[in-house]
């Protein structure tokens, strides 16, 4: 049988305390389930306590093509692996329960498999959004990055079951950063990837500096443990964090009464500030930060992200060392 004509798609997700927006997303997806190509929606709940699990059970009772399972304590990697195991399709389309999708999203994500029999993986475009001043500033800072074109998030990815089985699925040993490692494995396996920019998944950014820090720390820790000893993506980001560390070291020397502490602090903090400025003005982002208050907010956001990356890198090193 011809590879593209035999497509059967299972839509999967894992969720935990994510009732907001989930109902609307499921109702829109249900409309595209045809029982021929789009077979089912399989969701694994990690032990929700906010009504998410009850909502999923209601959907399952109303529509037999929605199949829900609960594995209390499962992290996101285990939830995805279980969802794939419970599903029946030979193509798996993974989404995050906290996202909203553009109209026709499912059809857009699977069309490359129909057009190209050699296609193994497709990825949509993550569009970051915010609702208040802080979130909109974070969203503006993260917009227009090319990351999805080569490193799709598993909130918006589809792949053949054969590829998933070949690479062994998601690594369940980490709490975050698993999708970057997953991408690394299927690329090394020679899978063909097609980016679908029209398939937009709208993801709301974290609502506070603390949550940004924790997100970056978890992601970086997972990245270090799984495949990247530095954890930080790109030399520019690495030098940026090192500059920040040098600047803080210089301040410590000043407090200790060391004569040249101010010079060290200036060089380090100037390097960090230069990268902050570069990141705010590249790709025409400067238009979003003309407001001085927004620019000050950007500095705080970048500081939270950089400290999260640095902390996550150290935490990852420690965990790697403990495992050896």
Quick structural gist:
By secondary structure, the protein is α/β, with parallel strands linked by helices.
What does the model show?
The chain has 2 domains: 4-205, Spore Coat Polysaccharide Biosynthesis Protein SpsA, Chain A (Alpha-Beta Complex), CATH 3.90.550; 235-323, no CATH class. It has 11 helices and 8 strands. The protein has helices at residues 22-30, 52-62, 76-86, 105-115, 133-142, 161-167, 178-188, 209-226, 235-255, 261-281, 292-323; strands at 9-15, 38-45, 66-70, 91-95, 100-101, 121-129, 156-160, 193-204. An 8-stranded mixed sheet has the order 3-2-1-4-7-6-8-5, with helices on both faces. Helix 2 (52-62) links the parallel strand 2 and strand 3 (66-70). Helix 9 packs antiparallel against helix 10.
How are the elements arranged and paired?
Layout: E1 9-15, H1 22-30, E2 38-45, H2 52-62, E3 66-70, H3 76-86, E4 91-95, E5 100-101, H4 105-115, E6 121-129, H5 133-142, E7 156-160, H6 161-167, H7 178-188, E8 193-204, H8 209-226, H9 235-255, H10 261-281, H11 292-323
Parallel strand pairs: 1-2, 1-4, 2-3, 6-8
Antiparallel strand pairs: 4-7, 5-8, 6-7
Helix pairs in contact: 5-11, 8-11, 9-10, 9-11
Offer a few descriptive terms.
single chain; 324 residues; alpha/beta; Spore Coat Polysaccharide Biosynthesis Protein SpsA, Chain A; 2 domains; eight-stranded mixed sheet; 11 helices; 16% strand; elongated
Structural class: alpha/beta
**What percentage of residues falls in helices of 4 or more residues?**
40-55%
Q: Which strand order do you get reading across the main beta sheet? A: 3-2-1-4-7-6-8-5
Low-confidence stretches: none
Tally of extended strands?
8
Order of helices and strands: EHEHEHEEHEHEHHEHHHH
Radius of gyration, whole Å: 22 Å
CATH class category label of the largest domain: Alpha Beta
CA distance, first residue to last residue: 47 Å
Please tally the helical runs, counting DSSP H or I stretches of 4 or more residues: 11
In the CATH hierarchy, the third-tier topology of the largest domain is known as Spore Coat Polysaccharide Biosynthesis Protein SpsA, Chain A
Question: Outline, from the CA principal axes?
Answer: elongated
